Amino acid sequence: MRNEIKEYEAVALAAEKFVKSVAEGNSSYAKELFTDDAVLFGILDGTLEHGSIEQFYHNVDTVAAGENFKARIDVLAVEETVAVVRVLEEGWGGRIDFTDFLLLLKLGGEWKCVAKAYNQNSNTIKE
Prior knowledge:
By secondary structure, this protein is of the alpha+beta class.
């Protein structure tokens, strides 16, 4: 069953914590969004990243997004207790464009991210 628009807005608001962390280079906002056991999957500059979300926190805290960083949040689906969000990132670290997919569950009345998978745009891969 499709949720009301207010639930889509709540999901987008939760995803803003992700974007704020990346933009500011401060994982503390993302730590409010992700569950402790959240997982990460993606390929960064040709190297597979997978496992704990801690790797994402490390990346955010050690690489500044840059002054030209831009992001867009698209809520793709909300179905009662599960949501899928796509985040487009441009210019992270001054050079990388990503498409992130966040999988959120409504836990205790709050939207929490349990998984992040991403694609690095091929034209931004550093060999």
